[in-house]
């Protein structure tokens, strides 16, 4: 099964980092967040990725072209006499991911529905595939997500959760008198779509001309036809929308990152 990663946005809310790199390449523990996402999928045997590149997509392409150089625990020799230089890795102690990766240029200004349309040719032989965003990590059980998707027969499954509370709430009576302050509580949060989606090929019938965000017209049409079901994830999830999110995830990584399931 192939996994489509939406990785083409400009990441304006984390401009401190995205001015030099696309948001999926912003690091946690020295590794791009897209690496963390792909490692999560790899834990469940999902290793075929289609990365929808856009803004500064060359950074993503260069990273994976030079992946072994970036990540291997190894020495290497370089024969500069060879055309373009021949690298030979020696004393390689690293684990090698069994990833098959398509890095597809889907345009700088393309909206998310259009990005999926532009990689349709890579999915023509697949009855279903997974879709996720390139900026969030989770300890979600992807085997359970897929099993749930197969149980209902609809076109699309999204994964949802109530994020951990970031803000306390205030209770006010009818006279605007503050009654109490409440601690941050997950139960008080709204349910959100966290990515980690599964779609049948029929989703292409809902994407229109690709000039919409996936979460707008296409999702609304799926909902209107009763073709979208939500898998409820009770565990950890966090996006990396801004620099504070990155710092939060970095602190978790230095301790006991809940999404690190590959050790």
What's the arrangement of secondary structure elements?
Elements: E1 2-7, H1 15-18, E2 27-28, E3 31-32, H2 33-43, E4 48-53, H3 57-65, H4 67-71, E5 75-79, E6 86-90, E7 100-105, H5 112-118, E8 128-133, E9 136-138, H6 142-152, E10 156-161, E11 169-172, E12 178-182, E13 192-193, E14 197-200, H7 217-224, E15 228-232, E16 237-239, H8 243-254
Parallel strand pairs: 1-4, 1-8, 4-7, 10-15
Antiparallel strand pairs: 2-3, 5-6, 8-14, 9-16, 10-13, 10-14, 11-12
Description:
The protein has about 260 residues and is α/β, with parallel strands linked by helices. It has one domain: Spore Coat Polysaccharide Biosynthesis Protein SpsA, Chain A, CATH 3.90.550. It is about 25% helix and about 25% strand. It has 8 helices and 16 strands. Strands 1, 4, 7, 8, 10, 13, 14 and 15 form an 8-stranded mixed beta sheet that branches. It has a two-stranded antiparallel sheet with strand order 2-3. Strand 11 and strand 12 form a beta hairpin. The longest helix is centred in the last third of the chain and has 12 residues. The protein is globular, with a radius of gyration of 20 Å. About 30% of the residues are buried. The mean pLDDT is about 90.
């Amino acid at each position: 099964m192939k996994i489509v990663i939406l990785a083409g946005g400009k990441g304006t809310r984390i401009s401190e980092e995205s001015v030099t790199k696309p948001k999926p390449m912003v690091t946690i523990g020295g590794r791009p967040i897209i690496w963390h996402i792909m490692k999560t999928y790899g834990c469940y045997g999902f290793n075929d990725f289609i990365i929808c590149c856009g803004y500064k997509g060359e950074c993503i392409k260069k990273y994976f072209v030079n992946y072994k150089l970036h990540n291997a625990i190894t020495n290497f020799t370089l024969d500069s006499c060879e055309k373009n230089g021949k690298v030979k890795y020696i004393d390689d102690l690293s684990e090698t991911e069994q990833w098959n990766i398509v890095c597809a240029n889907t345009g700088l200004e393309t909206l998310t529905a259009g990005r999926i349309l532009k990689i349709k040719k890579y999915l023509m032989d697949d009855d279903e595939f997974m879709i996720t965003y390139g900026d969030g990590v989770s300890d979600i059980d992807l085997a359970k997500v897929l099993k749930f998707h197969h149980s209902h027969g609809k076109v699309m499954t999204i994964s949802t959760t109530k994020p951990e509370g970031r803000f306390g709430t205030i209770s006010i009576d009818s006279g605007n008198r503050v009654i109490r302050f409440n601690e941050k509580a997950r139960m008080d949060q709204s349910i959100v779509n966290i990515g980690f989606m599964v779609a049948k090929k029929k989703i292409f019938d809902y994407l229109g001309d690709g000039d919409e965000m996936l979460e707008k017209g296409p999702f609304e049409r799926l909902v209107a036809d009763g073709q979208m079901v939500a898998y409820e994830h009770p565990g950890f999830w966090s996006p990396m929308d801004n620099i504070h999110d990155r710092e939060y995830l970095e602190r978790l990584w230095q301790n006991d990152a809940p999404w690190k399931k590959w050790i």
